[in-house]
Amino acid sequence: MIKNLVKYLSISLLFFSCSKDDTPVIKPVKNYTVDYIKTFGGTRNESAQSIIATDDGGYIVLGFTQSIDGDVITTQASIQYDYWLLKFDKDDKLQWKKVFGGSKDEKAYKIIKANDSGFVVVGFSKSNDFDVATNEGFEDVWIIKIDTTGNILWKTNTGFSGSDQGFSIVQTSDGGYFAGGILDVTASGGQGNSRSYARHAGGDYWGIKLNASGVIQWRNYFGGTNTDTCYDVIETSDGYMLAGSSDSNDVDSKGNKGSYDFWIVKTDKAGKLLWEKSFGGSEIDEAKAIIKTDDNNFLIVGNTRSSDKDVSKNNGNADLWVIKISNNGTLLWEKVYGGSNFDAGNSISKSFDGGYLISGSSRSSDNNIANKGQNDAWVLQISNEGNLKWQKTFGGSNIDLFNDAIQLANGHIIAVGESSSNDNDIATNKGFSDLLIIKLN
């Protein structure tokens, strides 16, 4: 059994602190062991993009599926992508799984828990049938709210004639929601903006404010004449932050460091642009996730290929890069993690000891990173100061990666992503790529 094969894989690193007399004291880091490694899917492609803990001690995994067989239960007859949700109880037993979409492609990227019960999911849709009421063009941002058993309570789609996609959503302090993604401004002809601003070309960050019932209150886009992609959003005490990547150096983006940068946009609660900042070096730098810290600053995680300007060093082709900024966009510190090959970060979440869990992928086999094939799924924990506490990779001879990781109330860690392997750590592959779940305790 795979559980018995990997049960005793462990992470046993140590870190140092000082006592009151400045004598170094060795403190053991939690020695996590593998509880299980599971794959779910059919004969086509599946991927997990997001995970959230539920009030009953369980969790919901969100992603998308292309299959109509295997673990996927659907009434669809055509092979297209759909939203896919899997609900597990506190004992890791699958309670229910649901597929949402129409006769064309839908992909989901983020799930959050609503304050008034239920969950909200964001992604994109190409359909105008079955679960999807309308379509405004090619791809629309599609947001649905479901109850605790997976029934749709409301759904909202918005877009124009181009590729408009949602990647992140948060519940706001007024009980509504704020979603972030991309808008094809060229295809929309400048529509999709509540700001009094002239039209400009390219794909832009798109911020969408909804009320508690999913009704759109305002939509604003931000960017320049090149490519600007928002991957994550967060509410602040005085507005919102949008994080992603930009290679523009005009219109809203004024301080590009070279190629793609981490680009952070700060707005007020009405969507007015307060400031924007670019972070990076002369090569490609892409931010994927943002989180608020306990000291009211922000950590942003992604990847970098740079070794100059804001980036202190580069260990190889690409590194996982974390920066800490203040509420006004001042760079407080930055850290790189990884080896001599391609390494990237996709998510960040808080852990109970004051640190942070980061998920991503690694192709490296040095700097204490083990590699079993191509991309391996990679999870690591850093301290509040950005010091590496432990890291672990999982995979086989093909491509495996994590897109999200959280710590449950019982202290266990669940990391989710996708796998194309069927060897080494991954016992089973059911199609091209499978939804991957790994639990550490």
Can you give a write-up of this model?
- The chain has helices spanning 2-6, 185-188, and strands at 14-18, 24-28, 34-40, 46-53, 59-65, 82-88, 94-100, 106-113, 119-125, 140-146, 152-158, 165-171, 177-184, 203-210, 216-222, 228-236, 239-246, 261-268, 273-279, 285-292, 298-304, 319-325, 331-337, 343-350, 356-362, 376-382, 388-394, 400-407, 413-419, 434-440.
- The strands form eight sheets. A four-stranded antiparallel sheet has the order 3-30-29-28. A four-stranded antiparallel sheet has the order 4-5-6-7, with no helix packed on it.
- It is mainly beta.
- The model is unreliable at 1-27 (pLDDT under 50).
- A hairpin with a 5-residue loop joins strand 6 and strand 7 (94-100).
- 50% of the residues are buried.
- The longest helix has 5 residues, at 2-6.
- The two termini are 18 Å apart.
- Helix content is 2%, strand content 49%.
Q: In what range is the share of β-strand residues?
A: over 45%
Biggest sheet layout: 4 strands, antiparallel
Structural class: mainly beta
| Rough outline | globular
Number of helices: 2
Distance between the ends: 18 Å
List the strand order in the largest sheet. 3-30-29-28
Estimate the mean pLDDT confidence: 93
